[in-house]
């Protein structure tokens, strides 16, 4: 997609120039991929405010860079940042914007010592990445499809005596076999009292009758990350379990309905959070209601109390309220959807498709 990547670079060049920078040094691997198409653990991009871009990577990725980025001049060097700093100096670029949220103090000092004048660029690339084009949404939809189908397949294996870790492995195997390039993140399986920890690490605890099991999983496909959480029950749930499940389900429906173009992220958070707080469980829900997803599992916008900003059409986000009762267990329900303009039963487009009804196994 050279034309798409070139258009993205042109937007960033224009924004960097508006900040008074002669160019931009992009060092975040995710942002380099977004702007060039190259997936690499060692690459950087120099974008002059006017003129041709330079992509630097080492010999391990040079063939891929030359194949996938035919419209870019490729600099092959193990030390990509100093190589581009030297190129910036040779072209008389000063100052050059840098990604201060990504660059370490040590790396910054090394570039500055070499004579490069650096100014903060901010999260310009992350801002561009928020709204996805149709091709990106198609890749994200495929990641979500793999996730949903894998969850449904792994669900049939759940039984008393199976451990959290065994279920996590079974689910991960299903995702890889269905075409995931890798996991979007480490799978969470939290059963019984372990469900009181939102990011519990699957352990050797065996499932037992009466357990709620929270399963948070996602596949990565062509770089794009899916994110979905469901909570299931082994055996008929107790009254308190059904109560918190129904409350979280209602809060999630309210959050999904609030995801519309132009909505404030704090308002989306409040749509879910206020229901939980009104039922007396405000202290049992500590994390934000959701976040953006794409080339990273957590990216802008963040949907939470006190967050600022508004949603735009074409932005994929999650909605994931939960209730976590210390020592007893918890419930979380999460979907990935795309913000859309216009009305409908759910204004956003749901990409994860597993039922949100409580499954009793």
In terms of topology, how is this protein built?
Elements: H1 2-18, E1 23-26, H2 29-36, E2 43-48, E3 54-57, H3 62-68, E4 73-76, H4 80-90, E5 96-98, H5 105-113, E6 118-120, H6 124-130, H7 134-155, H8 164-177, E7 182-183, E8 188-191, E9 212-217, E10 219-221, E11 224-225, E12 228-233, H9 239-258, H10 265-278, E13 290-292, E14 299-303, E15 316-319, E16 322-325, E17 329-332, E18 335-338, E19 349-350, E20 359-360
Parallel strand pairs: 1-5, 3-4, 5-6, 12-20
Antiparallel strand pairs: 1-2, 2-3, 7-10, 8-9, 9-12, 10-11, 13-14, 15-18, 16-17, 18-19
Helix pairs in contact: 7-8, 9-10
Describe the structure.
With 361 residues, the protein is an alpha+beta fold. 36% of the residues lie in helices and 21% in strands. The strands form six sheets. Strands 4-3-2-1-5-6 form a six-stranded mixed beta sheet, with helices on both faces. The protein has a four-stranded mixed beta sheet with strand order 8-9-12-20, with helices on one face. α3 (62-68) links the parallel β3 and β4 (73-76).
Helix content: 25-40%
**Proportion of β residues?**
15-25%
> Judging from the principal axes of the Cα atoms, what is the shape?
elongated
How many alpha or pi helices? Answer: 10
Radius of gyration: 23 Å
The secondary-structure class comes to alpha+beta
Largest β-sheet summary: 6 strands, mixed
Unreliable spans are none
Main traits of this protein?
alpha+beta; four-stranded mixed β-sheet; 361 residues; six-stranded mixed β-sheet
């Amino acid at each position: 997609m050279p034309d798409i990547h070139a258009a993205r670079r042109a937007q960033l060049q224009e924004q960097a120039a508006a900040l008074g920078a002669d160019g931009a040094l992009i060092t975040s691997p995710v942002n380099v991929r977004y702007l060039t198409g190259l997936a690499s653990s060692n690459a950087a991009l120099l974008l002059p405010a006017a003129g041709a871009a330079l992509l630097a990577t080492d010999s391990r990725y040079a063939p891929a860079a030359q194949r996938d980025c035919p419209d870019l001049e490729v600099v092959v060097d193990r030390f990509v940042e100093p190589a581009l700093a030297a190129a910036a100096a040779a072209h008389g670029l000063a100052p050059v914007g840098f990604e201060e949220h990504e660059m370490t103090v040590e790396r910054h000092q090394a570039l500055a010592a070499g004579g490069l004048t650096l100014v903060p660029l901010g999260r310009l690339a992350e801002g561009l990445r928020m709204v996805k084009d149709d091709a990106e949404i198609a890749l994200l939809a495929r990641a979500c499809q793999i996730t949903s189908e894998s969850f449904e397949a792994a669900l049939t294996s759940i039984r008393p005596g199976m451990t959290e870790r065994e279920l996590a492995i079974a689910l991960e195997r299903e995702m890889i076999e269905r075409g995931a390039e890798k996991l979007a993140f480490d799978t969470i399986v939290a059963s019984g009292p372990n469900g009181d920890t939102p990011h519990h690490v699957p352990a050797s605890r065996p499932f037992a009758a009466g357990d709620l099991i929270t399963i948070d999983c996602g596949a990565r496909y062509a770089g794009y990350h899916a994110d979905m959480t469901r909570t299931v029950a082994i055996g008929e749930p107790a009254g308190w379990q059904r109560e918190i499940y129904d409350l979280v389900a209602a809060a999630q429906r309210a959050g999904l309905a609030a995801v519309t173009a132009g909505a404030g992220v704090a308002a989306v958070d409040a749509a879910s959070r206020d229901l939980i707080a009104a039922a007396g469980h405000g202290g049992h829900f500590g994390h934000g209601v959701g976040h953006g997803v794409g080339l990273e599992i957590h990216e802008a916008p963040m949907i939470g109390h006190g967050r600022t900003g508004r949603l735009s059409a074409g932005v994929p986000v999650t909605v994931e309220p939960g209730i976590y009762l210390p020592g007893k267990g918890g419930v979380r329900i999460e979907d990935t959807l795309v913000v859309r303009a216009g009305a409908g039963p759910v204004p956003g487009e749901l990409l994860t498709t597993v039922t949100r009804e409580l499954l009793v196994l």
